[in-house]
Queue: 2 jobs
Job 1
Amino acid sequence: MKKTFLFTVLILGLCLTACSDDDDVSTTEISNEEKVIALLKSIETGDQEPAAYINPDKYIQHNLGVADGLAGFGEILQALPPNSAKVNTIRAFEDGDYIFTQTDYNFFGPKIGFDIFRFEDGLIVEHWDNLQVTPEQPNPSGHTMIDGATEITDLDKTEENKALVRNFISDILVNGNMDQIGNYFDGDHYIQHNPNIADGLSGLGSALAAMAEQGVTMEFSVIHKVLGQGNFVLSISEGYFGGEHTSYYDLFRVENGKIAEHWDVIETIAPEAERLNTNGKFNFPD
């Protein structure tokens, strides 16, 4: 069964690259965003057709717990207990050759994930993600990790909003210039979806103070990528949380030039001895 599945996936991908543009209806009539949503949903349904949206000759995997290429993708699907997977993509965005999504998963247990896919010539050639176990309870303000605004607006402000978020991460989280934090928020009007933090700058301050009392540190050292569409911006950063090497994916909604809402997924980066590929957790192309 396992070999049959992988063979089918590979044949689908190879057929896709060999077909002419006139014959390849499946990849020309739907958007890259739709391809990603279909591919993610196939984890739940077992549909093999969306695997044809992956370039079998170029697919690079940055999830360090999955082997590289189409074979690695097939192996992780085969390892799932039958009928156990659930996939509900809540938000999907496009920034040039990148599609990035926020998804509610049951994937070896309930998880919230951000996924990033890079396309070349209509096919997926690279994938990054961050996954976090879904908390059992809402955060102190009653928000979950996935509820909140979904409407994409202000498309003409995409680059401006990306610059705002990059500057916020750099000024506040990397360099610790907390005296500038008021420049990025409209007072205490800030909706927070982190499972441990309440709304507003007051909620953030209280959470950071509580962490400090417990000796837990949160460090951001490098911003690897900032992607956005309109009023939504995703930053991908590296640092340490509680002394552990950590990957931070932070999604921000910007309103009137200020950060108005925040979702995140925080994942510990696996040590080299436990990695199933050598592509690195980040390594975005220039």
Note: The helical segments are 2-18, 25-28, 32-45, 69-79, 158-174, 200-213.
Job 2
Amino acid sequence: MLRDLDTLIASMQPELQPGVYVFASLPHDAVVSGAGIVATFREREGLTVVMEESAAQAAGIAPLFRAAWITLTVHSDLNAVGLTAAFARALGDANISCNVIAAVYHDHIFVPVDDGERAVDVLQDLQRAAGKLSASPKP
């Protein structure tokens, strides 16, 4: 589990997951289970679900956001500082919005579906730059 920011960025290894994912909001009493569910989060206004687009369509769930899902395969410490800010800044500079879910083992980034591959390129550029910095001799 890594905590050093330069090492985290240099090791993040972004991986584009296959498929299209959607964010949707359901009533609090909605029953959500089964294949296709990636994440849920209970908010005051309702239950946010992230799920495979095909599963949402089959269930008649209206998507609010269609996304590509990128996993940073580095095992980052939940106490690590700055990783989310670094990749969000890089994506923002490339005019790519991102929605982030930090799980126990990995960070998961959801970007507009049409920006998935370009977002991976941006993240790989950030990773390469951090790798060069961490490989440089320290004064």
Note: DSSP finds four helices and seven strands in the chain.
